[in-house]
User: Fold Riboflavin biosynthesis protein from Mastigocoleus testarum BC008.
Amino acid sequence: MWVTSSTELALTPTCLALGKFDGVHRGHKRVIEPILPTSQNKIRGEWQSGREKEISDISGEGSFTSNSSLSSSHTYSTVVTFNPHPQEYFTGKPRAWLTPMEEKIEELRSLGVEQLVMLPFDKILCTLSPEDFVQRILVEQLQAARISVGEDFRFGSQRRGTVQDLQRIAARYNIPVNIVSLETQEYTQMDDSNRKERISTSLIREVLATGDMERANELLGRPYALVGKVVTGEQIGRTIGFPTANLQIPKDKFLPRKGVYAVRVSILNDISNKYEFHCLGVMNIGSRPTVNGANLSLEVHLLDWAGDLYERTLRVRLEKFLRPEQKFSGLEALKNQIQQDCVNAKIFFGSEL
Ligand SMILES: Cc1cc2nc3c(=O)[nH]c(=O)nc-3n(C[C@H](O)[C@H](O)[C@H](O)COP(=O)(O)O)c2cc1C
Ligand SMILES: Nc1ncnc2c1ncn2[C@@H]1O[C@H](COP(=O)(O)OP(=O)(O)O)[C@@H](O)[C@H]1O
Assistant:
């Protein structure tokens, strides 16, 4: 996937999905899918513009079959997002992301997106009128052949432009705009009644903060993951029989509720750049009050495994919140509890063991 923050370096012409896409959740995927090479032919004819025929002639039918046959008529499936996050730009406060940049790139790449353009969200961009945004950025610079957006997408200065405006302005340039309705998820409430909730980044953040991983992962469409390098800790873990790999994650990663989780761990093969080894584990996200820990730490113990993990990159998928972190009277009590955590994780993963 080609990643750039300069529209001048972008590969053109493009087929665009516009949005912030933090989390790359199920709703985001519905916006992105129509621009993917595999969807192009199916989507033709379903989009809303009556000028679809002309557009398909321009973008070149059949040019998406494989990357090796890319030609000058190839239309690059492109996600356009903003950096920094507009909210971060306006408030000046750093924001924690469900998918910090590296993770977002990885998720989009795995969906089959060919290009990510991160528009610098600055004074110039945020004062563009909706008309100028479409004309200068989408038409002149990115040479958009078609556009896909979620129905709540807003653009242009003061978020003035709605998706209907986008459709109307883009039509002047014969660009069809696909408006995707917001994805919902059925949710059973405490009183057993059902309610539909709209899948959104802010809902997922709220749910992660409660530790309800089943619901968060359902909304996301995959398990919430922490990705980072293993660094050295205080080396107490091995003395109690539970060595724990300490993860260093991006500073701007959103963390779920503190406490102990049943997790799935994958280890990155640095040569193939693929996650290859998979096993189960228990993770603690907390400040380790029993050993008077000062900082927040993220530690994972791999079940029934031994080896050296220092400097390796791990992806830890959080599947189930087991309990809050506690201050124990000493290392022996902590050790007994971690032993019980391992049993509880094994019970949770049950059939896989
Ligand atoms: C599954 C699990 C549960 C843990 N629960 C607690 C806890 O409730 N309270 C606590 O103070 N530390 C807890 N810890 C953190 C331990 O204190 C920590 O792993 C130990 O001090 C070793 O740290 P080290 O990596 O510096 O060697 C837990 C660790 C794991 C892996
Ligand atoms: N089952 C395991 N789970 C996690 N780490 C393990 C395991 N077996 C061995 N290790 C190794 O032990 C290290 C953690 O040992 P620990 O005594 O807790 O030291 P540290 O405080 O540096 O994390 C890990 O980084 C890894 O290299």
Summary: The mean pLDDT is 88.
